[in-house]
Automatic annotation (TrEMBL):
Signal peptide: none annotated. It comes from Geomonas limicola. It holds the Pfam family Glycos_transf_2. It comes from the Bacteria. InterPro entries: Glyco_trans_2-like, Nucleotide-diphossugar_trans. Residues 5-125 form the Glycosyltransferase 2-like domain. SUPFAM superfamilies: Nucleotide-diphospho-sugar transferases (SSF53448). GO terms for biological process: protein N-linked glycosylation. This is Glycosyltransferase 2-like domain-containing protein.
Amino acid sequence: MKTTTIVVPCYNEAERLNPDRFLKVLQEDPGLSFLFVNDGSRDTTLQSLHALRDSEPARINVLDLERNSGKAEAVRRGILKAIEGPCAYVGYWDADLATPLEAIAEFCSILDGGGVDVVLGSRVCLLGRSIERKAWRHYIGRVFATCASLLLQLKVYDTQCGAKMFKNAPILRQVFGTPFKVNWTFDVEMIGRFLLLQHRTGEELATSWVEHPLREWADIKGSKIGVKDYLKGAFEYCTLFFHLRAARSRYLSYLTASEHSGNHTTPSP
Ligand SMILES: Nc1nc2c(ncn2[C@@H]2O[C@H](COP(=O)(O)OP(=O)(O)O)[C@@H](O)[C@H]2O)c(=O)[nH]1
Ligand SMILES: [Mg+2]
């Protein structure tokens, strides 16, 4: 049986956390476990998470970060802890369950199919699917997504969906090994890191990654992301533009140097 660990970053989620939905999906999938990361919450999130863990202690873990460090760092720390274990697949999922947990089984079967290393949830409005997003968030999201695609030079439709899964492979240690430069747009930086690292091995990211159009996605009330955060996001894209460009050229000169010297240790992206 293949095992999966899903990292759930939680910041002040006491009101939105729905323990029954997590317990239900654990019953349905015996290979699944959750690692909740409490990101320095100031409400009773930690107590709720401990109560949830106590009802299924073998398959629910809680990582408690004392200080609030932002979603990027909470996910990063969670993934690094999750991959220490023996899981075949690892992923992260927003605590508000905007993407229903039932989609985990769909992501797993895509990874089971072979040849796929990463599955990204994608919010595409298609007939027969239920993607309920506020119009203004949809349009701003599309502008961000188009910029992300241009920045990465990759035809990716939705980098910002909070549901992603990976095959547990050594590359994850490198991708998540060092803190991200940005917070709200860390998914873009993460993909950029994969691209740089796979450039070295000559792997084709475009063929081993799949964007999975979700059956259901809903904007859940209580998001803590406001207009200020969108402005921060725009600023982060500028940071990323320069950071990724510098990392790429550092990497290319490293490759040339290592070809000559025979040194094959990989620098962090
Ligand atoms: N807003 C916020 N969310 C965080 C933070 N750290 C972890 N998260 C988690 O990130 C996920 C997405 O947050 P949410 O407010 O729903 O953002 P949105 O869905 O993009 O509007 C949730 O699981 C949060 O609990 C943080 O510092 N701030
Ligand atoms: Mg949300």
